[in-house]
Predict the structure.
Amino acid sequence: MRKNLVAGNWKMNMTLQDGLALVSEITNMVQDEVTGSAVEVVICPPFPFLASIGKQLPTGGQFHLGAQNCHQKESGAFTGEVSAKMLQSVGAEYVILGHSERRQYFREDDELLSQKLKAALAAGLKPIFCVGESLETREADETFDYISKQLKDGLFHLSNEEFDQVVIAYEPIWAIGTGKTATSAQAQEVHAFIREQIARAYDAEAALSTTILYGGSANAQNARELFSQPDVDGGLIGGAALKSRDFTEIIKSF
Ligand SMILES: O=C[C@H](O)COP(=O)(O)O
C-alpha cells in the first residue's frame, strides 16, 4: 500500500546508549510537533540494537523498526549471520536489501538479493529494495537501462502478492553521503520511470500503489522539495537520520 514513509538508515554508526537517546529525542519531538500529513517512520539501527530500540519506539503508531540486511537462509551454520526470522522475532517489520554499500563492499548481486528478498518475505518482513546508478553510468546516459536491469533481475521475479509488500528506494550512488543531492527533477524522472517499469512487469494498479523513496544526501533543507514530487513518496535517510532535529524536520516535510 502506497504511503508517505521516512526510513532512517543508521548504517554502522552509534552505540546503544547514543541510539536510545536519539530515538527518545525523535519520538518526543515528533509527538510534540504536529506533522502535516500521515507519515510512517522506520528506524533501521545496527543488528545489536534492534530489540532495545524496538522496545523504545511507541507501539501501534507511526514508528516501525527495520534492519539493514538479512541472510538468505532461514537458519544453519552461517557464523556471524542474521536470518530474517530472527529479525522478525525481535520486532523488525522492514529490512533494507540491495543497498549500494552491500552491493559494492559485500559483492551482493542480483541472484543473492533475489534469495534475500524471498527469505525476508517468507519471514513476514517488508523489504526496502534499493536501486541506483553510479556517476559513471549517469554520465554515460545509461541510468534508465541500468535501473531497469536492477529491477528486472533483482525484483520483478516476485509474485504480485510478494511485490505488494515491497518498498523501493531510488538511491543514486553519486548522491549517497556526498552532500550532492539529486535535484527534485532528477529524482522525479527516475521515480516516474520506476513506476512505468512496475506497470509493465505487473500492472497499473501495482505501479500506483508502490511506495518509492528517494535516498542520497536528503536533509532537512531539501526534503520538502523532494517529497513534493508526484512520484516521490518519502526518503531513505543516512547521515541526517543520526541527528534528532534534522530527522524530525524531514519527517515533517510532507
Ligand atoms: O541509506 C541511506 C542512503 O544511503 C543515504 O545516505 P545519506 O543520506 O547519508 O546520503
In short: The CA atoms of residues 39 and 98 lie 24 Å apart. Strands lie at 5-9, 40-44, 63-67, 94-97, 126-131, 167-170, 212-214, 234-237. The chain has twelve helices and eight strands.
